[in-house]
Amino acid sequence: METVDVRKIRKKLEKDLDHKRFEHTLGVAYTACALAMCHQADIDKAQVAGLLHDCAKCMDNERKIAICKKQNIAITDIERQNPFLLHAKVGCYIAKKQFHIHDTDILNAVLNHTTGRPGMSLLEKIIYIADYIEPGRKHAPNLNEVRRLAFKDMDEALVKILQDTLVYLKSIDSPVDPATRQTYDYYIGRNNVNNEQEV
Ligand code: DGI
Ligand code: FE
Ligand code: FE
Question: What is the DSSP secondary structure assignment for residue 110, as one 8-state letter?
C-alpha cells in the first residue's frame, strides 16, 4: 500500500463527520484491525478502510446525488428511494479524490460496506463485519453471537448479519437492494448453517 498518513485522515474525518459518526468510525477502524490480526489480513489497509468507510455519511442527500450526477456514478432506483445508500458509492469517490487512496481493495471495501457483494475479498468482509460489530453498536439482534463468529468464521458471521439485516428491512418495510439479496444468497449457499431462514 502507498504510504498513508493515518493521523491526517483521522483529523479530516473529525471535521467532516459528526461526533457520533466519528466515534463509530474509530470503533470500526480498531475492530477491523483486530479482525485483520485474527484472519491474517493487512492491518494497515484494514485501519484505513475502517476509517474511511463512512467518510460520506454526513453529507446531505442532495450533495451525494449531485456528486453522483457530476461524476457519472449510476444511481439505481433503490438508491434514489433511499439516498443514504449512496454514502458507500460517494464514500469510495471521496476516499479517492479527497483522501488520495488508490488501493482498489480499500476502495472496494468502502464501496461495498453497506450491501456487501457476492465474492467479497478478505478486506471487504472485514469492513462489512467490523461495521456491524464495533463496540459502539448496541441494538442489533444476536450481537454476541455475531461478535463470536466474526473471530471464528467470517462467512458464517456474514450470513448471520445479512439474515438479520433482511429480517430488519422487512420489519420496517424498507426495500432490499439487489446487492444485499445477492450477497445473502451467495454466502448462504456456501454455508451449511442449520438456522437457515426464509427471509
Ligand atoms: O453507515 P452505517 O450506519 O454505519 O452502516 P451501513 O452503511 O451498513 O448502513 C446500515 C443500514 O443500511 C442499516 O440500517 C441497514 C441498511 N441496509 C443494508 N442493506 C440495505 C439497507 N437498507 C435498504 N433499504 N436496503 C438494503 O439492501
Ligand atoms: Fe455506512
Ligand atoms: Fe459504518
Answer: H
Q: Is residue 87 within 8 Å of 59, Cβ to Cβ? A: yes
Contacts of 197 (CB under 8 A, 6+ apart): 163, 167
- 24 CA distance to ligand 3 centroid (A)? 7
Task: Count Cα neighbours of 10 within 13 Å in the Cβ-side half-sphere.
Answer: 11
CA of 131 from ligand 3 middle (Å) equals 5
What is the pTM (predicted TM-score) of this model? 0.95
Percent of the chain at pLDDT > 70 equals: 95
Residue 131 beta carbon below 6 angstroms from any ligand 1 atom:
yes
- Ligand 1: residue of 82, 169, 170, 185 to mutate (most ligand atoms within 8 A of CB) is 169
Looking at residues 144-166, what average pLDDT do you find? 98
Neighbours of ion ligand 3 (CB under 5 A): 54, 131
Q: What is the pLDDT of residue 1?
A: 78
Locate all alpha helices (DSSP H) within the chain, ordered by sequence.
6-16, 19-38, 43-52, 61-70, 77-81, 86-97, 104-111, 122-133, 143-150, 154-171, 178-188
